[in-house]
Design goal:
CATH architecture of the largest domain: Orthogonal Bundle
CATH superfamily of the largest domain: Trigger factor, C-terminal domain
Number of strands: 13
Largest sheet: 5 strands, antiparallel
Low-confidence stretches: 435-439
Structural class: alpha+beta
Number of domains: 3
CATH class of the largest domain: Mainly Alpha
Shape: elongated
Distance between the termini: 86 Å
Mean pLDDT: 91
Amino acid sequence: MKYEVKRDVVNEAELTITVDKETVAKAVNKGYLKIAKQVDIPGFRKGKVPKFVLEQRIGKGAILEEAAEIMMSPAYAEAISEEGLDPVASPEVEIVQIGEDEEFIFKAKTILHPEPELGEYKGLKLTKTKTAVTEADVEAQIERTLDRHSKMVSVDEDAVVEESDLVTIDYKGTIDGEEFPGGSAEKYPLGIGSDTFIPGFEEQLKGHKVGDDVDVKVTFPEDYHSENLQGKDAVFAVHVNEIRRKELPELTDDFVQLISPAETVAAYREHVEDELKDQAERSANEALRDQAIDALLDITEVTIPDVMIDEKVDSFITDMNTRLSQQGLDLDQYLQYVGKTMDELKEENRPAAERSVKTEVSLLEVAKRENIEAEEVDVDAEITKVALMTNSQPDDIKARLMENGQYSVLIFTILLKKAIDFLVANADITETEKAEEKEETEEKAADAE
């Protein structure tokens, strides 16, 4: 076999491949045997049809086409390997010459993985924002925790409706003294301040007690979903059945022992502070990694093949469909809801897809230049993480990844992660305080003066 390669177009290669006569003869024989096993010809058993009879029945061209199929894939693969090319899609093939007693010549035009031109990626200038954890931050986090463990309890008979209360009401709405469809309900739970009812409705319940009857006067919005109610004035006769209010647990040693490893309230405050500091550090480091990617893309020149962008868009759409299915929806329902076509959705996602592919290509180039590899210890660490999260055995996770073809995706992900780690480790990082904290410090200093 011999071949010639033309690379006149960016990210494309055209190979003209010539297969010798001996290989052609063997392929023609294989093609004949394969077809002979598939066709039924009266008087002959399958696989035992003489070649000249088969040619008379189906034509020599069909056998030559089968022979071409037999030869093209291995010849193309060999040429690609020898030339060191990295295709990203199946080639477009054109047969130039084929005959039983002559060389087989075909052209294969293929799209290649892009080769990015990187600028100086060592010493990227990055900024790491330090976020101090204040006492107010700790108290706010504790309040959020108490709120998550709160419960709704009925208020005393003298208590009145307040913001954030949950009230149970009966109501009957009228317009010009006439009831309207959907305007009545019994034992309806309504969160005060939720803004789920007509504007002004919830506010007029404040200050009332259980057992009160209230006439709530409202005007339906001009864009209300029921056209027959848009802009109409209505009166709702409301009866307050129950008022429930959030009750926070008391911050005690017993409580903190239930929700944390701390034994005392004081120790719990320190625990919360440490967690907030860890979160702030993780957030700062993640922002640093995002900066590193942005900085790398700024110094990278590369043309991304459309086929790679198309594949990434399809991947985005598949992920979206998976998320929708978890909510009991599908893409058709979503598209109908947002008033878009599938083509419009794909076009909308195209810029993000192109950036995603450019990021992957650029990071892989960094990994290639720096001889970064996904080593066994890296793979084991990632698999162990998944195993711990899913309460599974690492060997079982690895076997499943191999079976469903996701093991290579894991290797790919590790390479990208390590490339980003390399960029950050070799960056020129300036640390700064959070802007608002600096402003607050400066204001305090000015006040002191």
